[in-house]
Design goal:
The chain is 76% helix and 0% strand. With 270 residues, the chain is an all-alpha fold. The relative contact order is 0.13.
């Protein structure tokens, strides 16, 4: 006699999708119920945008060879969009650390759910929050004068793909930082390089305008090629090798973060 239960038992893939969707809903509900962390992290790039445009805008525009403040707005916004992603993913590190320290992960380990769905829910939820945050910062940029009239539909699509890929890569790194942190404060501190690196990239001034000894620090890091690629896509400036470098950084960081996070998560708890 056949066993209907066995016939309808979900496959491993469908189980993973179902459980990951459940974990995604859980993380989105947490973000909606406790929006203060995301809003606080979102304020950093917005405040920097307003500060550099309205306080330093004319001086910085002259420094990069621009005509007026609008030239510096166009230069600044792409970098701050990527900085927004780095800022948002700090919340992911804190959220993962809270799950680890508050015992919910230990409870999930005893339940019949797909093991990787917990991390996938965090990652997908964080990428969605990053996209929303980028849209909000971009809207502020447009409100104060940013325009991208020369970008084609294909370039806009490529820019969106780069933002999502960059968010995915940084999110996996942030998940690993959260897993190794003993508490939320440590997770926030461990993830601070995700905000610090954009400050020493080409976000605010061209690499060529920096002191010679400092230029390698700004050039050989993930944010600068990603910023220059996004800037080229939105403004029609030269991209050169930055496009390939940006994709390589994203794929490398995503692979590293994934291996690191899954290894720490699957390790037997001490």
């Amino acid at each position: 006699m056949s066993t209907p239960q066995a016939a309808v038992r979900p496959s491993g893939f469908s189980l993973a999708v179902r459980d990951s969707s459940t974990m995604l809903r859980r993380n989105l509900l947490h973000a909606r119920r406790y929006p203060s962390l995301t809003l606080n992290l979102l304020l950093t790039p917005i405040m920097l945008l307003l500060l550099f445009v309205y306080v330093f805008g004319d001086t910085m525009s002259a420094g990069i060879g621009g005509g007026d403040r609008s030239d510096y707005i166009a230069y600044l916004v792409p970098g701050l969009l990527l900085m927004t992603i780095g800022s948002t993913t700090i919340g992911t590190a804190v959220s993962v650390s809270n799950d680890m320290t508050e015992g919910i992960i230990a409870r999930f380990r005893t339940m019949a759910i797909h093991r990787g769905s917990v991390l996938v829910g965090h990652v997908v939820g964080s990428v969605l929050q990053s996209v929303v945050s980028v849209v909000l910062v971009g809207a502020v940029g447009v409100a104060i004068g940013f325009r991208s009239t020369d970008a084609t539909a294909l370039e806009w699509l490529a820019a969106f793909g780069l933002l999502v890929l960059f968010a995915t890569a940084l999110t996996w790194i942030a998940v690993g930082m959260g897993l190794i942190s003993p508490n939320a404060e440590a997770a926030s501190n461990n993830a601070m390089p995700l905000i610090f690196l954009p400050l020493i990239s080409s976000t605010f001034v061209p690499v060529d305008a920096m002191p010679g000894w400092f230029q390698p620090i700004a050039e050989y890091q993930p944010f600068t090629p990603a910023i220059e690629t996004l800037r080229g896509l939105l403004l029609g400036t030269e991209i050169g090798n930055n496009g390939w470098l940006a994709v390589a950084w994203c794929l490398g960081l995503a692979a590293l973060g994934y291996r690191w996070s899954t290894a720490k998560f699957n390790a037997d708890p001490k």
